[in-house]
Amino acid sequence: MSNVSHTRADITSHPDVSEMRERYDRVLGGRDVALVDGPVFLVGLYCAVSPWVLHFTASQPTLVQHNLIMGIAIAVLGLGFTVMPARMYGLSWAICAIGIWMIVSPWIVGSSPDMGVILNNIIIGGLAVLLGAVCAGAAAKSGRSRA
Fold this sequence. Notes:
Elements: H1 17-28, H2 34-53, H3 61-83, H4 85-88, H5 92-108, H6 115-146
Helix pairs in contact: 2-3, 2-6, 3-5, 5-6
């Protein structure tokens, strides 16, 4: 019969404990901001669909295409952060740049946008700048800790 006692064995005495810890750290790869990847993706999705949510497809056709393309770009970066974090966190500053562009784009791309369109892009841009800065800060911190 097998031993079914409910005593817990201490894993610290296992001969491979140091190797298991190193592998666990390597797999995680310093992922301090794993919870930011989802919001980045969601901000991108909302940016892409915002022209239809706020119904400015007829009044601002150039901003419709602009928000769709920028939203897809933000969402793709968010997916990249999730799938390949070690390679993609260097592009965190790109989200900040996209966010700044989203803030000023209603006046550059649009033609006399109304307050709803302006506020929409300012909020999307502000969130993108904030989330991009958090990702960039975490990438810089994990880069310094590895060196």
